[in-house]
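Thread: quick sanity check before group meeting

JM: Hey all, I'm pulling together slides for Thursday and realized we never actually wrote out the predicted structure for the chain we discussed last week. Dropping the sequence here so it's in one place. If anyone has concerns about the input, flag it before I start.
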Amino acid sequence: MKFMFFISILVIYEISFAQSFFNNIINAPFFILKLSGTSADGLFRPRDLDFHTDSSRLNELWIINENSAVYDPAFGGSTVTYYNAGLDSQWSDYRKDSFSAHFMHTASALAFSDNGGFANTLDVQDANNNPNGYFSGCTLWEADTSIYARINQNGPELGSHWDMLHQSPFSVGIAAETDNIYWLFDGFHNTIAKYNFQDPHPDHEHGGEDHSDGLIYRYDEIYVNRVTGLSSHMVLDHSNDMLYICDTGNQRIIRMNINAGEIGNDLDPYGENIEGYYSMIGADFETVIDSGLVLPTGIDIYNTFLLVSDYSTGDIHIYDLEPTNQFQLIHKLGTDIIDDLMSIKVGPDGTIWLVSTNANKLYQILPPMNGDFDGDNSITLNDFISLLSHIINSNAISEEYLFLADIDHNSAIDIFDLVLLLDSIN
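JM (edit): ok, ran it. Output follows.
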């Protein structure tokens, strides 16, 4: 009983700590943009990122590359996993399934589901490189590192993939609902589709070709527009089942109620036999943001905030989801990663992670350190002089920087803060 109480207190503390980190990022006069990954780790045209959903695998960050690393001559999408992401003990693991030329062909997005598996989309017309074909869609994987990109690498089965359905060429965004159910931005049909892999292989076979139990629901009343070479990421608000979508080509954010709609008619699947392929009617969707965005590609939800990143400007727009349906822009983070910021994700600690596709880089946005008045992410003599000048009324610190001066968090800026600052000078 005491142990469970301790665990509960620890969880509450971690949530509070993360919220504080995030709030400090969006309320501070500046932030720290920390380079956390490069092509040396295997990053090559990274298109998306997500954290593993298993609480026992905290700070496990997965990046999906459009293609293989510069030092890997084999064609096909790949992943880089950062363990202990953001910590001093961070390390990376590059992996590429030997059959990823099909299953991660021009990989454009990935999402982890609550069962610990993940799926990716393919930004290509045909995953077999058939110029007249349209065999492309979404691939399902297990994140068990003893399986993923480890088994069947020389056959006899088709690598370590768990399942694949092929009804959405040029798919560029994905969000997980639950288990093996995912939502896709279908760039070929210019709409949103729901993919239900059900139980891919009852015997846990990997690399197989049996897709017969797949169910796909296409919401053709919704019109979205893909931009060549860019992802259009999506995020599901599990508190109310609202799916938020970067409609990149139409320069807007839309949302849909994933529980609305019914089957209108059957569709004929292309190139494979599946259990069902349907066009839906009665979709419940709306535009929620249609100004201030040029090429929205990245999106995430953190507590009551909606974050949208703009590939063109490098800005991260932060909207308040409360009060309902107002979507007030409360802050904008300018990263200066212009024509390169593809995707964003808020980490378990409340910091913001992002990928720079053309530069092959991973960044982490950190809040400023208490006492760091010049924004160099370190405490130096310059910071000490700034605080001393403020205390003796020689040169006041700007009001927006004052919260950085309260080192001991007692709502007063005094000699005690100065002593603590002196102790932390690098």
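AS: nice. The two ends are 44 Å apart (CA to CA). The longest helix spans residues 2-27.
JM: adding both to the slides.
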